[in-house]
Write a structure and sequence with these properties.
Layout: E1 36-42, E2 52-57, E3 62-69, H1 74-92, H2 123-142, E4 152-153, E5 155-160, E6 165-171, E7 175-180, E8 183-186, H3 193-199, H4 205-209, E9 230-235, E10 241-245, H5 247-250, H6 255-263, H7 270-283, E11 290-296
Antiparallel strand pairs: 1-11, 2-3, 3-4, 3-5, 5-6, 6-9, 7-8, 7-10, 10-11
Helix pairs in contact: 1-2
């Protein structure tokens, strides 16, 4: 089932007469324009439980999918913990919530206690810290019970920066695609053993699709105390359509089939497109949980 995270807004600040003489702070940066989006998750035709999760905070331009792993219900716990912690951290680090820089505030090499060389309200910093928060939430929870040890999740997410730039981060083998002028392009590189073998020239794409180790990923949220995400910026164009998907979709449908479904869809039809993608994946076997999230650029 799709999950939309809802966070409580800050209470409005009422200006008092005592505060009237204080310097007026600069206006907070405007929120990015909200994009049309739709998301859907399905357990597939083989598995009873759904360990995927998807969520969005459209008011800050944030969208995320996680694909959990672990015995019993551990994968489901991991994916939901990760989406909630990730979006909460992004919202807390939104420019409107970060106070103006103090001249006396200590900095470490200009990175403001972050591992990125960007200011604290920069999208790269916000994504890096959100991934860190998600990783810590899942890793700490996994230490609470023996049954949860080894649980983890993939993560793929978009964060809009203004009108024409989006930032993309991912861990594991959940993917992001862009459909532009009818052409589908994969924007992420799987963190998996078969992807490493493909890049080393050991396997072809066709061989990798049938590999018995194709499910083994090399990075995951929560499996280790620290994880390093891939983060990249992409220029957007009007009419772009972005697809986030768990591997339950991409193991069943090739790029041509995904393109065919998406090119038949227009912005008002994003939800039917999500249903069409999942129906097609189930028609091909539905051997894993299937989750899709579509975001359109106006």
């Amino acid at each position: 089932m799709a999950n939309t995270a809802t966070l409580k807004p800050l209470k409005p600040q009422i200006r008092t007469s005592a505060a009237a003489a204080a310097p007026t702070p600069p206006p907070a940066p405007a929120s990015p324009p909200q994009h049309a989006f739709a998301m859907l998750s399905h357990p597939g035709r083989v598995r009873r439980a759904n360990q995927d999760a998807c969520a969005a905070l459209p008011e800050i331009g944030a969208f995320v999918i996680c694909d959990g792993m672990g015995g019993a219900a551990a994968g489901e716990v991991a994916s939901h913990l990760a989406t909630e912690a990730f979006l909460h951290a992004l919202d807390q680090r939104h420019p409107r919530r970060i106070p103006p820089k103090s001249t006396s505030a200590p900095e470490l090499n200009g990175v403001h206690n972050s591992d990125t060389p960007y200011p604290p309200d920069h999208p790269h910093t916000r994504l890096h810290e959100a991934v860190r928060a998600a990783n810590q939430a899942v890793f700490r929870h996994s230490r609470k019970s023996q049954s949860l040890h080894g649980m983890g999740t993939t993560l793929v997410a978009l964060l809009w920066d203004g009108v024409d730039t989006l930032w993309l981060t991912h861990i594991g083998d959940s993917r992001c695609y862009r459909l532009r002028h009818g052409a589908l392009q994969l924007l992420t590189v799987d963190h998996s053993l078969v992807e490493e073998q493909i890049r080393a020239g050991i396997l072809s794409r066709t061989q990798a699709a049938a590999s018995p180790i194709r499910n083994i990923i090399t990075r995951a949220i929560g499996s280790q105390p620290i994880v390093e995400p891939d983060i990249a910026a992409h220029a957007t164009q009007p009419g772009d359509l972005y697809l986030l998907a768990s591997d339950g979709l991409t193991r069943e449908l090739d790029d041509a089939e995904i393109t065919s479904i998406l090119t038949r869809s227009a912005t008002p039809a994003l939800e039917p497109a999500c249903h069409a993608l999942i129906d097609a994946a189930n028609a091909h076997g539905g051997r894993d949980n299937i989750t899709v999230l579509l975001v359109a650029c106006p």
